Amino acid sequence: MNHGRARFIVGFLFFPVLLYVVYVIWPYLQTIGYSLTDWNGFTPEVPYAGFGNYADLLKDETFLRSLYHNAVILVVYPIVTILLALFFAFMLNVGGRGDKAGVRGVAGSGLYKTIFFFPQLLSIAIVAILWSRIFESSTDTGFLNALLAKVGIVDPQRPLLFLGETNSWLLPGIPFGDTILDAPVVLWCLIAIAVWGGVGFYLVLFSAGMQSIPRDIFEAALLDGSTRGQTFFRITLPLLWEQISVAWVYLGIAALDFFLLAYAIAPPSMQATGASHVMSSWIYHTAFGSSRYDKFGYACAMAVAMAAFTFIFALIQLRITRREKIEF
Questions:
Q1: What is the pTM of this model?
Q2: Closest Cα to residue 314, out of 230, 246, 257, 263?
Q3: Structure confidence at residue 100 (pLDDT)
Q4: CATH superfamily of 57-321
Q5: pLDDT at position 101, please?
């Protein structure tokens, strides 16, 4: 082993590295190369276009609007998901009252963890069917409209169009050249679905971090007269900072993607108008949409821009949230 260590290591690493280069690195390089062309994805000719595709991105109204949608998701989705997951994890681990100085979860915490985690077991197809029926614009078949009509909030003859409203809601439209950047109702519905599906996973992640914190710390703080709010902000939050940082990066990357929800749940009418588009769904529509088959090189330029945004976000986020690890 000592004499042939180099050959031994190279022998084990050669094929995994080769597979990674062929199936990961090389497609990335091909995408960058195609982004500099006007290739339509089908013909053998690949005309060179230089950086013209990247200049056209700043003139593409739908791409700019999709980028704004991703920015809204990037701000709202991670914050709401992390806050809810932290709150539920705190309540299910140290939020109850018992004999041990009150340091235990609420009654039935194990059952609650299972219920919260359940959405992680559902495929995107099931989620799309489930929430499409909930948000359907009818008081007969749409669950949410039927519920609101039952309590008298919605007129049964004029149901709300959760997946069909193209006007801004909560956030005003921002003019950008000839484009109005807004956040339509359908986008907020997609964010709500994403939060519903993601809270359970991060609840489990934060619960595992809380369970690794010695109970003596919580007991000492409570005996010294600390309130539950002080215990959370002075003890739990600092000791969970590493898990929160990881969750923030993962949720940020998911927010910059968001393809499955935008494509599977938003109706075709919203995809046609661009109201529900995010960068990834507009890339797919540009490359494979029935009316844009000649834009494969342009779609690659969008993909490269999206990858650059994701990489920059991850670097900035890791830099901002980096702290020294606290050892027990």
A1: 0.82
A2: 246
A3: 47
A4: MetI-like (1.10.3720.10)
A5: 47
